[in-house]
């Protein structure tokens, strides 16, 4: 699992290191990495480095300092480097001196069009972790003219470093070199960051330094661990029995999808309970189906809600499963029931782990507001309010735990917005909860495999929930293979 720190945590850690390193050493280390990445991009895009043209766009602080030092290192490799100083009187003095000493050119305002025209790479050194708001007009004017690839220093300027939100002109980077730790923007808005390279500055980050990450991202190994290869001593019960309380006579499809996903996602036993028993049985002979939750056998977890209906009957079913003392994943109609009949939660005994899996609309029903720009804060607040793990669906599914931990999942394509796809996710998650996984990790792993199954099923063409469902085993195999060849699988 990889940690992601907000700018406050990074700045605090940087200050601690700065206090004990010689002036400028950290910056030059960072700048060297920027220069190396820039040279690689020049080679990639133009076939060489020497004699190429690079334009630096330099802001008022250390981010600009990084860019200026990087420009000096590029000059030493024969690159023609120009620098637009957005705040000449506040440009980083040592960086500017090094840049001039190397023969770098400060570009006058009138020469900007010519430089943006001829530059084969532009380095965004406008702002870094002290950024506030969108690009200001002078910087926006320069980037409006830019057609060459852009290398962002630390993060793309104009994008909120801690939420990834863009509410005005902002840099669209081809690549980013970031320092010390990834910031939320790198996970929440990867489209603006391009390929992110992390430079280790030896920053004291981590719980051992009293700086727990704001966000975490599962490595492929964490996801693979959710699907241990069943051993000889395993049997259908050790894998856990997942209960699916979904569907109604009018909506049997949701029950078929959710039960099928649990079957495909785990090798444990799956029980279905509800009025769609015949349809579920006909699709999945391995599912033990009964007419209602009251006469379903013991299970280790329930996934409830898809197609359940939001009336009295649905409420009784939800109250029943909440009272069984096993983890419950409440999705779809179960979320609406929690929102419209909150007394249903009285049936939940306190240490029954609850996982809510809202999309934005269900989130608004649940909490009274849509998640807004800071989705992490919204998910975190809802997790605390309901004392539940909240899996907030979106381009980057977030999984917040009541204790504040937040997972950011790999981006999933729009294809998963297809009807019924949420039912598949519920089934996968029900299976993992039944296997006894920590609900927060189970939700993260389920979302990861669900996203991969969507990619596999879609493979560039429109897909449907049942195809996503059929692709779940392939997605699990993919995770295991990535894990075996040691990739992080980001
Ligand atoms: N302290 C150090 O020695 C190191 C700092 N590093 C670099 O330093 C950066 C942080 O530098 P600073 O804290 O000086 O601040 P920045 O360079 O991020 O921002 C500079 C100034 O820009 C102004 N600003 C804020 N939002 C703006 C906007 N939208 N448009 C234009 N100007 C805006 C603010 O006045 C801010 O102080 C990091 O992102 C990283 O690139 C790294 O080199 C690691 C070492
Ligand atoms: K930047």
TrEMBL record:
Cofactor note: Binds 1 potassium ion per subunit.
Annotated ranges, domain YjeF N-terminal: 10-209
EC number(s) reported in the record: 4.2.1.136, 5.1.99.6
Domain YjeF C-terminal: start-end pairs: 219-479
InterPro entries from the UniProt entry: Carbohydrate_kinase_pred_CS, CARKD, Nnr, Ribokinase-like, YjeF_N_dom, YjeF_N_dom_sf
Family affiliation: Belongs to the NnrE/AIBP family. In the N-terminal section; belongs to the NnrE/AIBP family.
Entries under NCBIfam families matching the protein: yjeF_cterm, yjeF_nterm
PANTHER family assigned: ATP-DEPENDENT (S)-NAD(P)H-HYDRATE DEHYDRATASE, ATP-DEPENDENT (S)-NAD(P)H-HYDRATE DEHYDRATASE FAMILY MEMBER
Task of the protein: Catalyzes the dehydration of the S-form of NAD(P)HX at the expense of ADP, which is converted to AMP. Together with NAD(P)HX epimerase, which catalyzes the epimerization of the S- and R-forms, the enzyme allows the repair of both epimers of NAD(P)HX, a damaged form of NAD(P)H that is a result of enzymatic or heat-dependent hydration. Catalyzes the epimerization of the S- and R-forms of NAD(P)HX, a damaged form of NAD(P)H that is a result of enzymatic or heat-dependent hydration. This is a prerequisite for the S-specific NAD(P)H-hydrate dehydratase to allow the repair of both epimers of NAD(P)HX.
Identification of the protein by name: Bifunctional NAD(P)H-hydrate repair enzyme
């Amino acid at each position: 699992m990889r940690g992601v720190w907000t700018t406050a945590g990074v700045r605090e850690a940087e200050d601690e290191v700065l206090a004990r390193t010689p002036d400028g050493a950290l910056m030059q280390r960072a700048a060297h990495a920027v220069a190396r990445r820039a040279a690689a991009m020049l080679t990639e895009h133009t076939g060489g480095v020497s004699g190429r043209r690079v334009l630096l766009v330099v802001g008022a602080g250390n981010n600009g300092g990084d860019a200026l030092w990087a420009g000096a290192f590029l000059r030493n490799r024969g690159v023609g480097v120009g620098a637009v100083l957005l705040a000449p009187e506040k440009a980083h003095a040592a960086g500017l001196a090094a840049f001039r000493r190397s023969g770098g050119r400060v570009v006058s305002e009138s020469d900007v069009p010519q430089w943006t025209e001829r530059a084969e790479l532009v380095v965004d050194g406008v702002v870094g972790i002290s950024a506030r708001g969108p690009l200001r007009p002078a910087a926006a004017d320069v980037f409006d003219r830019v057609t060459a690839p852009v290398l962002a220093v630390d993060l793309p300027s104009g994008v909120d470093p801690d939420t990834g939100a863009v509410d005005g002109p902002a840099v669209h980077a081809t690549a980013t070199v970031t320092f010390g730790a990834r910031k939320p923007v790198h996970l929440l808005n990867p489209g603006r960051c391009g390929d992110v390279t992390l430079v280790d500055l030896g920053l004291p980050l981590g719980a051992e330094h009293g700086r727990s990450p704001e966000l975490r991202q599962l490595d492929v190994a964490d996801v693979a661990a959710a699907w241990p290869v069943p051993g000889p001593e395993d049997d259908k019960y050790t894998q856990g029995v997942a209960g699916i309380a979904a569907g109604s006579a009018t909506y049997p499809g949701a029950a078929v999808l959710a039960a099928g996903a649990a079957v495909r996602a785990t090798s444990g036993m799956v029980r279905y309970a509800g009025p769609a028993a015949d349809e579920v049985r006909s699709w999945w002979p391995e599912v033990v189906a009964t007419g209602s939750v009251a006469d379903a056998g013991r299970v280790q977890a329930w996934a409830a809600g898809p197609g359940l209906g939001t009336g009295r009957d649905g409420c009784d079913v939800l109250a029943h499963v909440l009272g069984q003392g096993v983890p419950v994943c409440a999705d779809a109609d179960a979320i609406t029931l929690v929102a419209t009949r909150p007394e249903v939660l009285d049936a939940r005994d306190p240490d029954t782990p609850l996982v809510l899996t809202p999309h934005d609309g269900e989130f608004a029903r649940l909490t009274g507001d849509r998640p807004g720009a800071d989705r992490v804060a919204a998910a975190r607040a809802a997790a605390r309010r309901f004392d539940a793990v909240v899996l907030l669906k979106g381009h980057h599914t977030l999984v917040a735990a009541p204790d504040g931990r937040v997972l950011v999942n790999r981006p999933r394509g729009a294809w998963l917005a297809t009807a019924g796809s949420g039912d598949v996710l519920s089934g996968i998650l029900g299976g993992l909860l039944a296997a006894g996984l920590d609900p927060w990790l189970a939700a993260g792993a389920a979302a990861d495999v669900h996203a991969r199954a969507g990619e596999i099923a879609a493979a560039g063409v429109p897909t449907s929930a049942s195809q996503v469902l059929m692709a779940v085993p392939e997605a699990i195999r993919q995770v295991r293979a990535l894990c075996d060849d040691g990739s992080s699988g980001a």
